[in-house]
Write a structure and sequence with these properties.
Strand content: 15-25%
Strand order of the largest sheet: 8-7-18-19-20-17-21
Number of domains: 3
Number of strands: 22
Distance between the termini: 18 Å
CATH class of the largest domain: Alpha Beta
Shape: globular
CATH superfamily of the largest domain: FAD/NAD(P)-binding domain
Helix content: 25-40%
CATH topology of the largest domain: FAD/NAD(P)-binding domain
Largest sheet: 7 strands, mixed
Structural class: alpha+beta
Length: 469
């Protein structure tokens, strides 16, 4: 009788769970799948909680509806696969603002993550320097080149466009600085266009034209009932055995595949499997790879992360603007870097009692000491700064919640994707039944993480000899 094949997925975030679903759908019919999650909760940064009697996201709040090429995003495809498409909802209000010069100004239209495609549209927020964006006789970016987003935009459009538009947009996603973040990793569509276009304005317009969006087509979606429903549905569809509070401390090759050492040192369990999807953050992955793939471990372990805190306040009938929220440039000197008016932005969350949920994101890369403040101090600072930006005192909150995400957001410096490709190639050559997946390698956001997990699963299926289905 043939022995059933076993795959371990180390990490129960959305990348790991997407890998488990793909393994179930396309892997061998007799495949045993086990997910090991170090914490007590699955879903990683997808976590729906409750505040003042209503649901609220304590982590990621939405997903992109389309991929960079203009097709359906991997997150939407997974939602459909899990039978949740009927629960997709979109923002009721999509207009956001920038907090600049002591007030709120609408984020200009026609930008690509803050990089203008029409310089006239951004003049109310920042003064571009169009004379610097000259045609130099060749593409902005060479075939294998990568630069920081800030360096490229600053050289072409000037400092104000970076500081007041691009930096807060990237900071809202990555908690990082535009001058440090890789163009190829964080803005792949613009990077592709920059390899052909001779001006930045031309590159932005080409990137926008490559993935046109119909008027009124929603950019973002979420699930009625919260994103934790996506997590629960993925667990059910995967048919995987789930182990929570199960830290994988060691990974060693065995005669037939891999041996995992799981749990505390004094009571460790040894588990033998045929293949492993390693879907944990880069540094824990590097520790597990240190002895078996030192070259890969060195590259993976060099990735840095930013920490953030999400402060949610339940406010009784506040006077909020008709906006989804606002972003704050670092030059404004505020602790808050972004705020979302949840019950304004998402119509399905509006409450008949007039209670409003407002969530602020706190923490930029390099400012982690600010996050050492007690919860009460963070909440009070957020309340004070929100009141200042809105120009009137907000009512005292009836409830609040502080969610800290330590080491949550990878910081992709220029050359990141080339380093990851090399690290994965070395790992694949040495260990064909071990794959890496997750935000640390491929980018942030639910669709990217889903695709990363699914790709790892497909490669494992191939390494095991195909689906057999």
């Amino acid at each position: 009788m043939a022995t059933r094949r076993r795959v371990a997925v180390v990490g129960g975030g959305i990348a790991g769970l997407a890998a488990a679903v793909r393994l179930r759908d396309r892997g061998p019919a007799d495949l045993d799948i086990t997910v090991y999650e170090q914490s007590g909760a699955l879903g990683g940064k997808l976590r729906t909680g409750e505040l003042a009697g209503g649901p609220v996201e304590f982590g990621a709040e939405s997903f992109l509806m389309r991929d960079p090429a203009g097709g359906e995003s991997a997150a939407v495809a997974l939602v459909r696969r899990l039978g949740l498409a009927g629960r997709i909802v979109h923002p009721t209000i999509g207009q956001a603002a920038l907090a600049v010069d002591g007030g709120l100004r609408p984020i200009p239209g026609g930008t690509l993550v803050g990089v203008p495609g029409d310089l006239d549209k951004v003049s109310a927020v920042a003064r571009p320097t169009p004379e610097a964006d000259r045609d130099g006789g060749g593409p902005l970016l060479g075939p294998g080149d990568d630069v920081s987003v800030g360096a490229l935009v600053r050289s072409r459009f000037g400092a104000e466009v970076v500081d007041r538009l691009v930096d807060p947009m990237l900071g809202g996603v990555y908690a990082g600085r535009a001058d440090d973040l890789s163009l190829v990793t964080t803005m792949p569509a613009l990077a592709r266009a920059a390899r052909a276009e001779h001006t930045l304005l031309g590159a932005v317009r080409a990137a926008q034209a490559a993935a046109p969006r119909a008027p009124g087509e929603p950019v973002f979606g979420t699930l009625d009932g919260g994103l934790s429903t996506l997590v629960d549905a993925a667990v059910a569809a995967s048919g995987a055995t789930i182990h929570r509070n199960a830290a994988v401390r060691e990974l060693t090759p065995s005669a037939t595949g891999w041996r995992l050492t799981v749990g505390p040192t004094r009571d460790a369990e040894h588990v033998d499997v045929d293949a492993v999807v390693l879907a944990v953050p880069a540094r824990p992955a590097a520790r597990l790879l240190a002895d078996i793939a030192p070259e890969t471990a060195e590259v993976v372990g060099g990735l840095d992360y930013a920490s953030v805190a999400l402060v949610t306040l339940a406010l009784p009938e506040p006077a909020l603007p008709d906006l989804s929220g606002f972003l704050v440039p670092a030059t404004e000197g505020l602790l808050v870097k972004a705020a979302t008016f949840f019950t304004t932005k998402w119509g399905h969350l509006r409450r008949p009692d007039g209670l409003a949920l407002v969530r602020a994101s706190v923490g930029r890369y390099g400012d982690e000491e600010q996050l050492q403040r007690p919860d009460e101090d963070l909440a009070a600072t957020v309340h004070r700064e929100l009141s200042a930006v809105l120009g009137a005192p907000l009512p005292a909150p009836v409830a609040g919640h502080v969610q800290r995400w330590g080491g949550a957001l990878p910081q992709y410096t220029p050359g990141h994707l080339d380093r990851v490709i090399a690290a994965r190639s070395a790992l694949r050559a040495a260990h064909p039944t071990l794959r890496l997946a997750g935000a640390g390698y491929d980018g942030v956001g639910i669709p990217v993480c889903v695709r990363s997990g699914e790709t790892a699963a497909e490669e494992i299926i191939t390494a095991l000899g195909g689906s057999g289905k």
